[in-house]
C-alpha cells in the first residue's frame, strides 16, 4: 500500500542516508497525535478494541491505542518503519495488549482477525495517487472486520486551513505537474477525497470530524528533515535533486520561522468514520 502525514516510498535523500524512518519517528509522526486521540476518543477505543493499523509507520498511533488498553496490530510496507513500530510496541504500554507489526499488507495480518476497528492514519489528499494507493489495502482489510465495524480514513483539510499547503506547493513547482507527477507528487486536497475512497471500497460513511494538528519544529533543520520524511517531496527530488528540494523548502518555510528559531504552521486534518455494511 502507499504508506503513511502522507508517507510514500523513500525519498532519494533519506534512502541514501538511512535516516528517513528515524526522521519520521523522531520528528514528524508526533504532529498527528491530536488526530489519533480525537478518533480514539470518539470511538471509545479501549480494552474491547482489536485494532488493525494500515500503514502504521513508526507505530506511534498503535502505541497511543495500546495505552488505552486496545489490542493492536500494525502493517506497513516499509521494513524500516515496521522495525521502528515493533521496537516501540515491544516496550509495551500500561494496560495495553500490543500485537504484531507486520511488514507487508493487511492480508499478512489475517491471523489476528477478526478486528473490530481499522485505521488508515496516512492522511490522503495532498499527493497524486494517494487515494488510489489506499484502495488495495482497504480491499484486503475490509474482509478482516465484522459487519458494522468502523474503518477510519484520514486526510488533509482544506488548503486554506492548512498553512503547510503553501510549503507543499514546492513539490508541485519543482515537478511542474501537480496532478500528474506520479506517486508522491503534491496536489491540492479535495473536499470529497475520503468519501470517494470509502465509496469505492464499499463502505458507508457514518460521521466525520476535523482536528487541529499544528506542525511545530525546534529549528529549520528539523522542519526540513521532518517534511522530507513524509514522502510528499519524492517526485520533486526525482525531477531535480534532493539538495535543490531542501533549498526550496527552506525558502518556503521562512515565513513560518519565529524569532526564537522555531518553525510553526497551523493545520486542520479530517477524519471519516465509514462502516462495513
UniProtKB/TrEMBL annotation:
Gene Ontology biological process terms, A to Z: methylation
Keywords: Methyltransferase, Transferase
UniProt cross-references to InterPro entries, sorted A to Z: Methyltransf_11, SAM-dependent_MTases_sf
One GO MF term: methyltransferase activity
Domain of life: Bacteria
Domain called Methyltransferase type: residue spans: 52-90
Keyword Transferase assigned: yes
Pfam families membership: Methyltransf_11
Designated name of the protein: Methyltransferase domain-containing protein
Lineage: Bacteria, Bacillati, Actinomycetota, Actinomycetes, Kitasatosporales
Amino acid at each position: 500500500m502507499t504508506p503513511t502525514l502522507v508517507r510514500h516510498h523513500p525519498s532519494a535523500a533519506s534512502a541514501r542516508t538511512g535516516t528517513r524512518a528515524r526522521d519520521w519517528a523522531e520528528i514528524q509522526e508526533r504532529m498527528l497525535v491530536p488526530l489519533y486521540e480525537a478518533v480514539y476518543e470518539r470511538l471509545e477505543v479501549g480494552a474491547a478494541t482489536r485494532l488493525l493499523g494500515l500503514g502504521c509507520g513508526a507505530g506511534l498511533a498503535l502505541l497511543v491505542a495500546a495505552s488505552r488498553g486496545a489490542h493492536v496490530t500494525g502493517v506497513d510496507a516499509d521494513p524500516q518503519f515496521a522495525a521502528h513500530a515493533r521496537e516501540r510496541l515491544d516496550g509495551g504500554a500500561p494496560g495495553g495488549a500490543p500485537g504484531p507489526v507486520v511488514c507487508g499488507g493487511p492480508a499478512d495480518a489475517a491471523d489476528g482477525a477478526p478486528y473490530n476497528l481499522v485505521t488508515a492514519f496516512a492522511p490522503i489528499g495532498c499527493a497524486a495517487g494517494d487515494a488510489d494507493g489506499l484502495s488495495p489495502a482497504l480491499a484486503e482489510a475490509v474482509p478482516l472486520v465484522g459487519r458494522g465495524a468502523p474503518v477510519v480514513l484520514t486526510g488533509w483539510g482544506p488548503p486554506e486551513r492548512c498553512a503547510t499547503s503553501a510549503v507543499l506547493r514546492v513539490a508541485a513547482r519543482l515537478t511542474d505537474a501537480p496532478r500528474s507527477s506520479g506517486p508522491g507528487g503534491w496536489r491540492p486536497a479535495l473536499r470529497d477525497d475520503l468519501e470517494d475512497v470509502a465509496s469505492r471500497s464499499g463502505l458507508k460513511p457514518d460521521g466525520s470530524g476535523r482536528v487541529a494538528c499544528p506542525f511545530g519544529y525546534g529549528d529549520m533543520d528539523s522542519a526540513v528533515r521532518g517534511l522530507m520524511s513524509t514522502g510528499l517531496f519524492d517526485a520533486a527530488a526525482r525531477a531535480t535533486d534532493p539538495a535543490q528540494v531542501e533549498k526550496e523548502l527552506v525558502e518556503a518555510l521562512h515565513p513560518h520561522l519565529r524569532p526564537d528559531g522555531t518553525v510553526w504552521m497551523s493545520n486542520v486534518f479530517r477524519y471519516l468514520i465509514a462502516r462495513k455494511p
